[in-house]
Structures are given as C-alpha cells and as structure tokens.
Design a protein that fits this description.
CATH architecture: 7 Propeller
Largest sheet: 4 strands, antiparallel
Number of helices: 0
Number of domains: 1
Shape: globular
CATH superfamily: YVTN repeat-like/Quinoprotein amine dehydrogenase
Structural class: mainly beta
Order of helices and strands: EEEEEEEEEEEEEEEEEEEEEEEEEEEEEE
Strand order of the largest sheet: 3-2-1-30
Low-confidence stretches: 18-22
Length: 399
C-alpha cells in the first residue's frame, strides 16, 4: 500500500542571492501532494512574503516551523530575521499560520525541532559583507575604530502546547573567523542538528571552520559548550547528518569540495575526524570565473535509510555526489550524477526513502530521482516541477 504524503517546499520571497524573483509574494511554504508515481501537484501556499530558507516538521506531524531568512523583521532594516510557526491540517496537509517571533539575529538560515516539541533551535547566519564602524578599547587603554559585522548566533525558542513559538530564551553569540576573504570575516553558523539521542546540538560554523557541540539542558532551555571540532582552514563546514545506526557524523564543506566523517562519542559529544572524500571530479575547473558558484560550493547532505549511501549536492558543478559507506562509516565515492538544473541548494528523500528530490535554486525546478538499492546511484524519472527560488524541502506522511 502506497504512503499518502505531502511535500513542503520553502522558497525565498525576495532576492537574497542574485536570483531573479520580482518583488515579494513568491516565497513562503508551498504545499504539494505527491501521486503514486512521484509527481507533485501544488495545493496551497502559506505566507508568500516569508523567506522560508529552512523548514522543520514536528515529529508528531502537527506543526511546521520555518526560518524567515531576512534582516528587516517587522519591515525595519536591521531588525534581524524571524521564525514562523504553522499548524498542519492532518487531513489535507494544508498550513495555517500561527505566529512569528524575532529570530534574535540576522538571516536565520536553519531550524530544527526536538522530537518532544519542547524547543526550536535556529542558526542566525548573519550577513557576509555589511559592516558598521564602532569605537573599541584596545589592550593599551587607547581607542580605535573597528569594522564590525552581523553576529552569528544560535537561538533557542520554547514551544507552546498549541504549537506557537515563544520568544528566544537562550542565545549563543559566536566569535571567530578564518582565512577566506568575504566568506570568513566572522562566524557564520549555517546549520543546527541534533544527535540521534537528542542530547547534543551541533552547529556547522562555516565562518570559523568549526563544528560546535552543545549539551542541551531541556529543563532550563540552555546550551552548554561541550566540544569544538576544528576543520581544515578555508573549508567552511556547512551541513550535518548522522548515520542512522553508527556513532558517525558527516559534514560537507562548502568552500573546498569535500565531505568529512567524524566518530562521535555519545556520552561527551566529542568528535574525532576519521575520513574525508572529494565531491567533484579531479580535474573540475569552472567555465565562468565571474560566477560565485561556478567554482563549486557544496550545499546539502543526506543519508540513505539503509545507512549504506551518502549524498552531497554540488552548486556550480550542478550535481549530486554519491558515496558508499562501509560497516565503519568510511566513504568511497560511487559516482556523480547531474542534478537536473543549476545550483542544487536542497535535497531530501520522500517518506518511503526510495525517491530523492533535488531542488535547483537558480533554474527553479525540483527533480525526482529513484535510487538504486544496490549501487545507491540516483536516476532521473522524468518528473519535475517548476517554481521560483526553492531552497528547502521536507516530507510528511498523512493518515
């Protein structure tokens, strides 16, 4: 018997990254039904003015949460971003807006919710280039002018029984930078991710070349520093995923075309690097050096339900790199397949876990692939949909 499922697609309503999207109104969260053959049909659209850069569905399937990726919350530039809550109609999958609160930072780009729906965790990325000038005191007791950037931060939001968001109760402002101009002038957390037991919160800070680990105090709504894992300088760790069985964490590096595996110590949160692999062909060279993405930046990372295959999307090479995983979690690249469009920013498996959907941001299309259970390689089915600025993708099974 086939699973009745809904696809939720987060889209930017404004032009954030040089992608044409005239005016606001094409963003928000779009709701699609999925036919037995995998074809998607648009059924609803919620809050089209929202820049839904990332969406997360509660484990009970009753609520959806979205990071409103902006810096002009409430219509005032400089007010930061927002976090939105929606109620899901369990019969149709349609969304009803509940409320929105300040994200307590600029450009919130990732959100996740714990299984018991106690808290929503959000990463505030901050802007790459805008700066203010502030007078600061030096160690010598004198004063100088210093260029200051948006803060990168991790924010924690209590959730009410009715699904609504309360205001931020914990904020970890991150400090750091690394070797790359522009991308690493300051800390930029690009994701927040829970371990399988949900004792620890992980964030990939691409601005500081760090994976930061926090122990979660659910009673007080606090984050306690547990571990910092230094990554290769200039690598820019972006997204994270855990192996479904093994104590292994995988992280794709945005700026150097690599993916890394780390042993995870479940009791302490400590990480230890164990393996790395390359996501593009050995002699790949950009055809358009003026295009930020053409030299390639990795984006999303997913793992197959079997725990045997890992997937990383390449923006620029416009492909999905596929890796086989052995019984220890080590990676071997099995192949690289075209993404079916340009700038594959997001991808995800459907509920049964046999179909992989890839959202190509620049060309505005979501392409369906079926995965070979033996090799892990995805194959395009011919089904795709067109929409503007797809940047996040989640699925939900309906009763």
């Amino acid at each position: 018997m086939s699973v009745k499922q809904i696809a939720y697609v987060g889209a930017w309503g404004a032009d954030i990254q040089g992608v044409t999207n005239p005016g606001e109104g094409d963003g928000g969260v779009k709701v699609y039904t999925i036919a037995e053959n995998g074809a998607m049909e648009l059924r609803d659209q919620a809050t089209p003015q929202v820049n839904a850069g990332c969406i997360s569905i509660s484990a009970d399937g009753r609520f959806l949460y979205a990071a409103d990726e902006r810096k002009d919350f409430g219509g005032v530039y400089g007010n930061g971003g927002g976090v939105c809550a929606y109620r899901i109609d369990r019969r149709t999958g349609k969304l009803s807006f509940i409320n929105e609160v300040s994200s307590a930072g600029a450009y919130p780009c990732y959100i996740t919710v714990d299984r018991n729906r106690r808290y929503a965790f959000v990463s505030n990325h901050g802007n790459h280039e805008e700066a203010t000038t502030q007078g600061v005191r030096t160690e010598r007791g004198t004063y100088i002018a210093k260029r200051m950037f948006d803060e990168g931060s991790i924010a924690v939001f209590p959730l009410s029984e009715d699904g609504s968001l309360k205001e931020c109760c914990e904020l970890k402002v991150l400090e750091g930078n690394s070797v790359l101009d522009f991308f690493q002038w300051t800390a930029h957390p690009h994701s927040v991710f829970l371990d399988n037991a949900e004792q620890f919160l992980f964030t990939a800070d691409k601005g500081s070349d760090l994976i930061r680990v926090y122990r979660i105090d659910y009673d007080r709504g606090r984050l306690e520093e547990a571990w910092e894992q230094r990554t290769q300088k200039g690598s820019a760790p972006r997204h994270l995923v855990f192996h479904p069985v093994l104590p292994v964490l995988y992280c794709n590096s945005e700026q150097n075309n690599t993916v890394h595996a780390y042993r995870f110590e479940r009791e302490t949160g400590k990480l230890e690097h164990m393996d790395s692999a390359v996501t593009v062909p050995e002699h790949y060279a950009p055809s358009n050096t003026g295009d930020t993405f053409d030299r390639n930046q990795t984006a999303d990372i997913r793992i197959h339900k079997s725990g045997q295959f890992l997937y990383v999307s390449n923006r620029g090479h416009n492909s999905v790199a596929v890796f086989t995983l052995n019984d220890r979690g080590n990676m071997t690249r099995a192949g690289i397949v075209p993404s079916g469009g340009e700038i594959p920013r997001a991808m995800n498996f459907d509920i049964p876990g046999n179909a992989l959907y890839v959202a190509n941001q620049r060309t505005g299309n979501i392409v369906q692939f079926v995965v070979d259970d033996r090799t892990g390689l995805p194959r395009q089915t011919g089904y795709e949909i067109k929409l503007k600025n797809p940047v996040s993708l989640q699925f939900l099974a309906l009763p």
